[in-house]
Structures are given as C-alpha cells and as structure tokens.
Design a protein that fits this description.
Order of helices and strands: HHHHHHHEEEHHHHHH
Structural class: mainly alpha
Radius of gyration: 23 Å
Shape: globular
Mean pLDDT: 85
Strand content: under 5%
Length: about 300
Amino acid sequence: MVFLLPIISFLCGMSWKNYITSFQSYLKIERGLSKNTVDNYTFDLERLCGFLDENNITVTPEKINEETIQQFIYGVSKELNARSQARIISGLKSFFSYMIFEDYRSDNPMELIEAPKIGRKLPDTLSVDDIDNLIAAIDLSTPEGERNKALLETLYGCGLRVSEIITLKISDLFFDEGFIKITGKGNKQRFVPIAKATQKYIESYKNTIRTHLIIAKGFEDTLFLNRRGKQLTRAMIFTIIKTLAVKINLAKNISPHTLRHSFATHLLENGADLRSIQMMLGHESITTTEIYVHLDRKYLTQVMATFHPRKK
C-alpha cells in the first residue's frame, strides 16, 4: 500500500518544510509508525510553524530555543486539554530528538519541558450479554448483515484493532492451525488464536456473500469488503457499531475499540494470564495491557482469596 505523506502547510518556511518532510520519512521507514501517527506529528509541527508565522518569529529548526517553544506551548494550553497538550509535547520531543540523531542539532530544546499530568482513563467495556445483544441486533436478511456479523464476531473474538480488521486478508487465515495472522502497529505481525465458531461465521460470509461481489482491483485478498468490492473504512466500522448500540438502547458510548477492551477484560476475568493477553493484543509493554482490563473490587477479592498463600 502506498504511504501518502501529509501535505505540509504553507505556513512553514522552506527550512521547516525540508526537515519535516525528512522527519516524516524517518517516522514511517525507520520507526514504522502508522500514517495516523505521522499525520498527528506533522500537524503539531505545522501548528508550531503557524505560531512562529503569526508572531513574526523567524527561526530555523536548528536554532529555535526552549523559550520560544515554551511561548508556543503556553499559547496552545489555553485552547487544548491536558491530553492534547501532552501529545503535542511528545511529538515535538520526537522531532528534536530526530534532529539530534541526524546531527542537525546538538541539544533538545524540549529537554526541560514537561507534559501536563494526565490520569489514565479506564476504557469502557461491555458485558458478555451486551455483546450478545449487539450482535443479535444485526439484520441477517441482507448481505451486509451477514458480513457485519462475521466482522463483529472476529473483532471481539480476536481482540483486534479497527485498522487490523479492515486490512485482514484471506491469505492471513490459517484455520487448520486455529490462528489468523494480524499486521498491527508499525507493521508488526502476530498470530492470534481464532475460535471454531468465529471461523464458521467468516467461512459463511466468504462463501455465500463475498463470492458474489464484483471485487475491485487491488482488493482481491481483502476479507471484508463493501458493496463496491473495496476495503471497508474505519468510519464504516464505527457507524455499524454505533447504529447497533442505538438499536438495542445501549446506554454507553462505544466504538470498535470497546470490543477490544471487552475481549481483554473477559479473558482475564475467566482466568487468562496478563502476559498471554498482552501477546494476543500485540502490546509491546504489559503496562499498556493493564489499562485495557477492568477489574472491580469484587473480582480482586476473588483473586486474593483463590491465589494468595495466606488465603486461609
């Protein structure tokens, strides 16, 4: 797939444009970051360029100092919440670290600038009954309904990201072995177990619905397709899930990621260890996995009573 670099705003001077373009290539090729992450980093740098332009500050990336960046961050702090501020600071730190890595600078003007403290927000999760009701609400009288059932069963049954489900390929299905191959963030691949029931839904969709589509060129191997025979968009997956939530009067603001959170939580509650869940989710750090898991006090009490050597 062609990786389209974002268009850099005219607000950036030529010197900034050149460095940002090189930074984009570095993020994509050497660090393997997703297009969304590269776009976000680029947007934050363009925001800094806009600040310099509005305040008639002429300075290159090699010469900009901590004081100027502090002024910029102070300005955006009036408009953005703590989480957005932290993201901007993280992006700028990465940019200037790249400048040092390439010997364009000898110091990082972000070194003493701290991001605002943000608490970890526990993600929403659904009960097993909620998920059963959500999937049961799918209208199976339409071809799209059969597809949506297979899609949601796979999304929840394998704990996938929305970007992973829309790019899942037929050649990634290893049903005889009981696994599917997932290409996650940074093009890192992992094998995730897939239940026989989920395999059955995928096979049914593939053999009774997908086979009748006129498939657009380049999408012959893509598993889940829209009516025009092309890959589904992230927005379409969000719409499918939100529509079903409204249909069953679910009083929660859910997204495709909610099913991923629920997958992890339900596994842990049924006795799976955190390390195994980490591997299935494709997290580099187990601390990332921890925030995907909802543990109420009652469950923690059960764990203590079951596993602690002093339980008696």
